[in-house]
Amino acid sequence: MYISARERTILEVLLRKEDETTVKELAKELNVSSRTVHRDLKGVEDILHDVGLALNKKSGSGIKIIGEENLKELLKKRLFQENHNEYTPDERLTIILTSLLEAKDPIKLVSLATDLNVTIATISNDLNKVEEKISAFELSLIRKRGYGLEINGSETAKRKAMSKLLLDHLDEFELITLVKENIIKKSTDPIEATSDRLLGLVDKQKLFIIEKHVNEIKGDLPYSMADSAYIGLLVHLTLAIERIQQGENVTFNEEYLESLKHTREFTVAKKLVEALEKAFQTSISLGEVGYITMHLMGAKLRNDYDHLLEDTSLQVGIIAQKLIQFVSKRINYNLSNNSSLFQGLVAHLRPALYRIKQKMGISNPLLYQIEQDYHELFLTIEAAVQETLPELIIPKEEIGYLVMHFASALLNQGDLREQHALVVCSSGIGTSKMLSTKLQQEIPSLKTSNVSLFDLETMDEDEYDLIVSTIPLGGLTKEYILVNPLLSELEINQIKRALLGKKQFAKSIKQPTMKRVDFLTELNRVQHYIAALQQVISGFSLTTLQQEKKEEMLIEICERLLAKNVITNSEQVVKELLEREEVGGLGIPGTMLALYHTRSDAVQVPSFTVYRLHFPLSIKAMDNSQMKINTILMMLCPQETTEETLELLSGISSIIIRDEKTTDSFQTNDEKQLELFFTSELRSMYNQLFIK
Question: Coiled-coil intervals in this record (predicted)?
């Protein structure tokens, strides 16, 4: 069965989407006209029919492949293994890039043209695009008559480009599945399928050995690894071993490497490297350990709250708060008290910022869908990032992940401002009333107006946020959602996403409530939180220090806390606080505050205390500049503690850096004022988490 390049691309797009896709969306993704897509759909239907599937075409809603899941999987594999001689421009580009990246010697232009069955002029045009693509990795293309084609640049840059190619063009989960099942065809043709050529960058046997060793060290990490990060690490390591054995090594910033040595992830990475050195009988540099450490730091499934208490600078928290403030202002909806959003952003931004600075790149297979479903929110966050981090170029893949954090927070709030939907059906009564009732049950903030198809032309479509119809609306210029009168869960989610995309939110916040699935578990959680809350509030104090030197101040603070039985060993805690300061500055930029914090087995109970300095102190800030402080904030946490304690202390960290008002309170209020302010903030945090 012959499948054209465009038919194959259409099938691949439709197979990876769960919801309907419009012809317009397909045309945009394929970079062709809607008329061209309509023309190709006939061939697509014939191909689907041959394998027992069908194309469901719903006017006003879109198209979707329907049929049994096992048949869809069969078609996916068939497309993957299909031996085709015609390539889309994107596929050609991928094959050329792969060939150039893995080549040890220059490649002739005519050789590429012959292999890809196109003219030399076409390849020359493709090479212009290749140059544009690789420039993002600080690579260049050498094009010399009589010499050939060659990519020029550092080994680090080449590996980044290889990893990006693999993760962009191969589904992360299918990558391992396909290799394990050994279903990749052994083609003897001059050019294999694009996926085969990409998989040629990694040695399957090496992949198996590396996977075995990564599995062995996973247990040494105090958290679970996200699946996508796990696959990304395997790809990175397989490429690294391959290139090291070819004599290619990377360089890593010495100063940053030194700071990584204090992290748990570095210890695990070192252990993994030692195992790989034995397995492959090769020597692996400390620079490679640094890159593996970065992968592990970005691999955590972040469901805890310790990242602000250990090796993460609060500088990341400040960036997260600035993003939240910008988005809140732009969408007219206050998210500054959403601790879950704050924690999620901090967890994501910590490894993301280094990835961006080092141009490591990241794959985001959901990017297209995110841009479609949350278009307005995407633009807002893009603007927020540009204002907050003007010195960095943030790729769309990273912005897509940030959008997911904000979208999740907004959908969970459940109080979109009152929006107006126009409900259309053939008669204007009966089914439309049923649909309106169902809509209001699912989305209480949504106001609905019913109208018949005949009356639709008299309505001003722009007065409504959304149009929902039970029948196709051929002549309508505005987009609408075609649904069943009984509304499926899929359709409800589609409507919610569309409403969220309008970006207008209520000014007042309705505190989110927690779902009580297991009452006993929830009760224990409340008790743990209250216990930590009582310890922090009862131990809170504001004290003035007369010492002039930093070490003397810390000794005085720890002696006071020892006397109150907060800690068991003042010398140990002072030592750990100073070690923590060595890892990164503790001064909060733009304030007169420093947050000294540690998690130690010499700490008995969670504690947060404030110290006003009689003699201002000069210390290193979180952005590595020097700054003056007049206040030390001291946050201590036991090494062994509950998730709720970590959640509380992390929440306090977010309060400190929330805005100018809160930082002013900590650096200027007297003890009574500060105690009132602090207690009020803790009460709000508690209410947000536990009170309906």
Answer: none
Contact criterion met (CB below 8 Å) for 149 and 143: yes
Long-range contacts of 557-565 (CB under 8 A, 24+ apart): 557/609, 557/611, 557/632, 557/634, 561/607, 561/609, 561/634, 561/636, 564/539, 565/604, 565/605
Pairing of strands 140-144, 466-469: unpaired
Q: Which residues contact 100 (CB under 8 A, 6 or more apart)?
A: 107, 130, 141, 149, 150, 151
The Cα–Cα gap between 429 and 423 comes to 10
Q: Is 490 helix (H, G, I), strand (E, B) or coil?
A: helix
d(CA 43, CA 7): 7
- Could you confirm whether domain 5-81 is CATH 1.10.10.10? yes
Architecture in CATH of 519-690:
3-Layer(aba) Sandwich (3.40)
- Spell out a b/e string for 14-34, using b for 16 or more CB atoms within 10 Å of the CB, else e: beebeebbbbebbbeebebee
Partner residues linked to 144 by β-bridges: 148
Q: Return the CATH superfamily for domain 419-500.
A: Response regulator (3.40.50.2300)
643-663 pLDDT per residue, tens: 889 888 888 888 888 888 888
What are 542-580's pLDDT values in tens digits? Answer: 999 999 999 999 999 999 999 999 999 999 999 999 988
